[in-house]
UniProtKB/TrEMBL annotation:
Keywords: Oxidoreductase. CDD domains: BKR_SDR_c. Its EC number is 1.1.1.100. One of its GO terms (molecular function) is 3-oxoacyl-[acyl-carrier-protein] reductase (NADPH) activity. One of its GO terms (biological process) is monocarboxylic acid metabolic process. Belongs to the short-chain dehydrogenases/reductases (SDR) family. PANTHER family: 3-OXOACYL-(ACYL-CARRIER-PROTEIN) REDUCTASE, 3-OXOACYL-[ACYL-CARRIER-PROTEIN] REDUCTASE FABG. Residues 5-179 form the Ketoreductase domain. It is an enzyme of class 1 (oxidoreductase). SUPFAM superfamilies: NAD(P)-binding Rossmann-fold domains. This is Putative 3-oxoacyl-(Acyl-carrier-protein) reductase (FabG) (Putative Acetoacetyl-CoA reductase (PhaB) 1.1.1.36).
Length: 237
């Protein structure tokens, strides 16, 4: 793995994804982000992508690699959605759309990224999961299933491509200060905080720091790992 690479961060136009993209850029990597609507972040290469569509993923990679002047050798699969509902009321569409975006999207992007990585004989695949994937939460059976499955995906990639200089790891954030946590009712926020040993929500930059490490040379012998960034909430789940 060279000191700097070419990174693609899916869903990198806001929140955790944007913090990751900016952190990778600060580390000297050339960075592109995917987004579905609006405008790309200032100072970063932006490519439109719908991760549930293979043709859109292929086109986004082709554009990113053209604008970054070479194959993507760092993939951060961050794009994800939630459609919360109690199990008995959850529709097929609410389940399928979340799994197809969060898990299927990561699969499609990893599959496409490995084409260039195999030729280069190096690569970093970093899948953004969630503490919920292993901890579980009521009303999030679809989301938890999709995020838990990323562990199996990363570990299978590790066994398949580890000999080619490609690593695949999972970062599992806990409750992070974003627009979503800001909108929580005060009683819900207090309940969540009481369950976190660190006594606070995390910052997007703290998730980005873990990703930045896994994308670098110092993490060459780490693969198939799940790195929690959750203030102790999951405690090894």
């Amino acid at each position: 793995m060279s000191a700097t690479g070419r990174a693609l961060v899916t869903g990198g136009n806001r929140g955790i994804g944007l913090a990751i993209a900016r952190s990778l850029a600060e580390a000297g990597h050339a960075v592109a982000v995917t987004y579905r609507s609006g405008e790309p972040p200032e100072g970063l290469v932006g490519v439109r992508c719908e991760v549930t569509d293979t043709a859109s993923v292929d086109a986004a990679f082709a554009e990113a690699e053209q604008r970054l002047e070479g194959p993507v050798d760092i993939l951060v699969a961050n794009a994800g959605i939630t459609r919360d509902q109690l199990l008995m009321r959850m529709s097929d569409d609410e389940y399928d759309s979340v799994v197809d975006t969060n898990l299927g999207g990561a699969f499609r992007c990893a599959r496409r990224a490995t084409k260039g990585m195999i030729r280069l004989r190096r690569g970093r695949i970093i899948l953004i999961s969630s503490v919920v994937g292993l901890y579980g939460l009521p009303g999030q059976a679809n989301y938890a299933a999709s995020k838990s499955a990323l562990v199996g995906l990363a570990r299978s990639i590790s066994r398949e491509l580890g000999g080619r200089g490609i690593t695949a790891n999972v970062v599992a954030p806990g409750f992070i200060e974003t627009d979503m946590t800001d909108a929580l009712p005060p009683d819900r926020k207090e309940a969540y905080l009481a369950a976190i040993p660190a006594g606070r929500f995390g910052a997007t930059q703290e998730v980005a720091a873990a990703v930045r490490f896994l994308a670098g040379e110092d993490a060459a012998y780490i693969t198939g790992a799940v790195i929690p960034v959750d203030g102790g909430l999951g405690m090894g789940h």
